[in-house]
Specification:
By secondary structure, this protein is of the alpha+beta class. It contains two helices and four strands; from the N terminus they run H-H-E-E-E-E. The chain is 39% helix and 20% strand. The strands form two sheets. The chain has a two-stranded antiparallel ribbon with strand order 1-4. A two-stranded antiparallel ribbon has the order 2-3.
């Protein structure tokens, strides 16, 4: 296989106008199963693109809140000297309104 990679056997160059289509047409005629393989590849690319589109649309839908307070607050009391005591205090509500984008 390496002998065909030497200069002169296979040269890398861009397709000229119309060469890509004629090469694909000839591959469909001569290579067995090429048409089915090309169709499966196109279907797979379409499926991947649809999945990425769906994933992007679900990620972008975030919940936006206009007001938030933690459900647990703290109440601090001063002790003797430089000592302060903190006690957790529960709250009844912490969201005011939610909006979905």
């Amino acid at each position: 296989a390496t002998k065909y990679q030497r200069h002169g056997y296979v040269e890398k160059r861009a397709f000229l106008p119309g060469e890509r289509r004629s090469a694909a047409r000839e591959m469909e005629r001569t290579v067995k199963g090429y048409r089915e393989l090309r169709q499966e590849l196109a279907d797979s690319r379409k499926t991947i693109q649809e999945q990425e589109q769906e994933r992007r649309s679900t990620v972008e839908k975030t919940i936006q809140t206009s007001f938030y307070k933690s459900p647990v607050g703290t109440r601090t009391q001063k002790g003797s000297g430089a000592i302060f005591y903190s006690d957790p205090v529960g709250r009844t509500s912490h969201f005011s309104a939610t909006k979905r984008i």
